[in-house]
């Protein structure tokens, strides 16, 4: 281990594994370590079901009615969710007119603007132009454009229109849903990027205790583990490795629920995402519900996993998610967790220590992707180019 690397990565959460893969593909010499014996970190998939009971200190063992423990792969923080049963609003005539406008919109072609200035007209004004009601506005801004607050309403409309356009194009590509969800749970994603990193020469070490991050003259120079020092030019890590360099900006409550039925009024969908806009429940933050099932190889046959999450706003977080839990009744078993939202205190450009954010309450990958792109830009000074990444990958795997 007494070697020098371009980049050392600590932690095997989604963010860290994706960045590790990207850096390896870009020709960097990468060492990736985790103090845990498993991939995934905070976003791990837990199997068998007995381990989930132990993790949440639930007494006893899962009942026989829940099937074999090894049939379960429960994501602690689900992302990339599929959605079904949300398309009823598309039947509204005015909303359809709005969607046609979005589909034809091209920010480089003024002929598609129809009197709207994408860099000056606010999204609130666009909604008014199409005479959309509050329920449709809530749905559009929070379920399609994936905003977490209503601040976007008074911003120039260009970004929002492009977000909705992305949703529509994704929906057209995949049929019933614009989302993807990996079979056997989200834990497959970090391992996939770990394999990508390894193909390009990256080195992985699990169950490796981290004794010290060595900083000299304000800049990281290496990591000490089991008496050995690996030197590096840059360090990527999750907040658990550098508690003195992060600050708490809030909390998230998550409730994992095991069900024996699909969520009501979703046409018996085997997966769905529900976003309850904050102003419909007198809150500042949306409440998220996602459900997956045995169709994704994450639960026993006939069973469903629903996860409710939101940003904590009061001293009684369980009461805050009650509107969502009522949608899921009856619930066989609940697993409740409250975790801190941690963010880096600085950008890392001086220390060359680049720290990821903890995962927020959203059940989609939008904010995590933003964090990945942001860290990449701070590390390299340039924007992440997906097409270049795909070209380099194809040099190894061949064309898709």
TrEMBL record:
InterPro entries: FAD/NAD-bd_sf, GDP_dissociation_inhibitor, RabGDI
Subcellular location: Cytoplasm; Golgi apparatus, trans-Golgi network; Membrane
Keyword Disulfide bond: no
Membrane topology category: Peripheral membrane protein
Assigned keywords, A-Z: Acetylation, Cytoplasm, Golgi apparatus, GTPase activation, Membrane, Phosphoprotein
Main location: cytoplasm
Positions in coiled-coil regions: none
Example of a GO MF term: Rab GDP-dissociation inhibitor activity
One GO CC term on file: Golgi apparatus
Reported function: Regulates the GDP/GTP exchange reaction of most RAB proteins by inhibiting the dissociation of GDP from them, and the subsequent binding of GTP.
Assembly and binders: Interacts with RHOH. Interacts with the GDP-bound inactive forms of RAB3A, RAB3B, RAB3C, RAB5A, RAB5B, RAB5C, RAB8A, RAB8B, RAB10, RAB12, RAB35, and RAB43; binds RAB3D to a lesser extent. Interacts with DZIP1; this interaction negatively regulates the interaction of GDI2 with GDP-bound RAB8A.
Protein name per the record: Rab GDP dissociation inhibitor
């Amino acid at each position: 281990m007494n070697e020098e690397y371009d980049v050392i990565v600590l932690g095997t959460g989604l963010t860290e594994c994706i960045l590790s893969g990207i850096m390896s593909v870009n020709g960097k010499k990468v060492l990736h370590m985790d103090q845990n014996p498993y991939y995934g970190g905070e976003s791990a998939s837990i199997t068998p079901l007995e381990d989930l009971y132990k993790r949440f200190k639930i007494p006893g063992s899962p009942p026989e009615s829940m099937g074999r423990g090894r049939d379960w792969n429960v994501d602690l923080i689900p992302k990339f969710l599929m959605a079904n049963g949300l398309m009823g609003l598309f039947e509204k005539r005015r909303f359809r007119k709005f969607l046609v406008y979005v589909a034809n919109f091209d920010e480089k072609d003024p002929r598609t603007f129809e009197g709207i200035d994408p860099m000056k007209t606010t999204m609130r004004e666009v909604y008014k132009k199409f005479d959309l009601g509050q329920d449709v506005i809530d749905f559009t801004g929070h379920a399609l454009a994936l905003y977490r607050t209503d601040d976007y309403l008074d911003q120039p409309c260009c970004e929002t229109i492009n977000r909705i356009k992305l949703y529509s194009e994704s929906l057209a590509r995949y049929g019933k849903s614009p989302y993807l969800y990996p079979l056997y749970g989200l834990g497959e994603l970090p391992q996939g990027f770990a394999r990508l990193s390894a193909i390009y020469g990256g080195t992985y070490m699990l169950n490796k205790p981290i004794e010290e991050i060595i900083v000299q003259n304000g800049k990281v120079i290496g990591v000490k583990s089991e008496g050995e020092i690996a030197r590096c030019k840059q360090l990527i890590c999750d907040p658990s490795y550098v508690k003195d360099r992060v600050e708490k900006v809030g909390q998230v409550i998550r409730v994992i629920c095991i069900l024996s039925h699909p969520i009501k009024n979703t046409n018996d969908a085997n997966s769905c995402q529900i976003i309850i806009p904050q102003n419909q429940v007198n809150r500042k933050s949306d409440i998220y519900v996602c459900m997956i099932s045995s169709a994704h190889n994450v639960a026993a046959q006939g069973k469903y996993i629903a996860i409710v999450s939101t940003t904590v706003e009061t001293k009684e977080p369980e009461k805050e998610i009650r509107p969502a839990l009522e949608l899921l009744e009856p619930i066989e078993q609940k697993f409740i967790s409250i975790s801190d939202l941690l963010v880096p205190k600085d950008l890392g450009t001086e220390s060359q220590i680049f720290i990821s954010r903890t995962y927020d309450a959203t059940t989609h990958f939008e904010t995590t992707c933003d964090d990945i792109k942001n860290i990449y830009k701070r590390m390299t000074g340039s924007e992440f180019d997906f097409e270049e990444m795909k070209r380099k990958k194809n040099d190894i795997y061949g064309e898709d």
